[in-house]
Amino acid sequence: MVAGGWYMRCAILGAGAIGTLVAAQLSQIDAVELLLYSRREQAMALAALGLRLESESTSTSVPPSRWTVVESGENLPSDWAGATDVVLLCSKANASEELAAVAAHLLSSEGFSISLQNGISNENILAKHCGSHRTLGALTTHGATRLEPGITKWAGRGEIVMGNCGGNLTAESPPVAELLTHLHSAELNPRWSENIAAELWLKLLLNCAINPLAAICGCENGSLLESPQLHEQSVATLLEAARVGRAIGIELPQDEFLIEQLDLVLAATAENDCSMLQDLRRGAITEIDSINGEVLRIAEQAGIACPLNSQLVALVKGIENSLHN
Predict the structure, then answer these.
(1) Tens of each residue's pLDDT in the chain, 325 residues
(2) N or C, where is the chain less crowded by C-beta within 10 Å?
(3) Looking at the structure, do residues 103 and 171 belong to the same domain, yes or no?
(4) Domain span at 291
(5) Do 187 and 260 share a domain, yes or no?
(6) Number of folded domains in the chain?
């Protein structure tokens, strides 16, 4: 217990770039106790050496004593099982099913889970395992790059947006209000949304417009703003995906606002290598199926043609195949 109240027990499942950024910032809050769940090489670095978080102006070191580290697939600490206040999923979308089951094992009866992953299906997976009453919709627009195990670059400052997606939790619910307070103190810019479905779709649109183009071209996000040709392609991909969202009833802003948001994100994360580019450089499978591929699946069901998004999916998958071969 700390002065003024109890510790909040927070488990971060998937301690990659975004996961370690959030962990590093929350580690500054004495009232937050942290568990990090990560793959072998990263887990070993976080447990033995801690983390170095680099930004444009500062470099912050977090000692390994500040958190408990669990390697993926290993047994969870018995004192965390059924006793965790909040679980944050920060992994790749293809690990959602596995980690949602881990989240269900960790959560207390009053705890809740959120996903800061790419895509629009992760909340449904969390709700299936943890219950809709213990699941919030969420997203982040912070940009981060894992430079090497135990070293993360905070490449672009954004926000963390949360909202109700079918349960009874609100911004005033005690555990939610406590997390929002800690995220604010950690300078992660939290915001509560009354329409998280539209917010999640907006992030999906931005990912569709940025990630595959930057990954294919091997460039930082800012290049999509600097090059007229790339910017035109990015905008066209964005608006094509937006038509799909509107066709299924998602309340999206006007095209002009969407383009403005795209330009703002590109400017704010100009020096960031998007996660899809990072994946290709590591020879890893990307999240293209959960981003542009998700739009294609919905478009097919709605009978809408999406040639630009379809082409980007094909190109990214072609690069994946060439790397694996």
Answers:
(1) 333 446 899 999 999 999 999 999 999 999 999 999 999 999 999 999 999 999 888 899 999 999 999 999 999 999 999 999 999 999 999 899 999 999 999 999 999 999 999 999 999 999 999 999 999 999 998 988 899 999 999 988 889 999 998 888 999 999 999 999 999 999 999 999 999 999 999 999 999 999 999 999 999 999 999 999 999 999 999 999 999 999 999 999 999 999 999 999 999 888 888 989 989 998 989 999 999 999 999 999 999 999 999 999 999 999 999 987 7
(2) C
(3) yes
(4) 197-324
(5) no
(6) 2
In a domain, 130, yes or no: yes
Tokens of 166: 């079918």
Residue with tokens 């790339």: 230
Kindly report the pTM of this predicted structure: 0.90
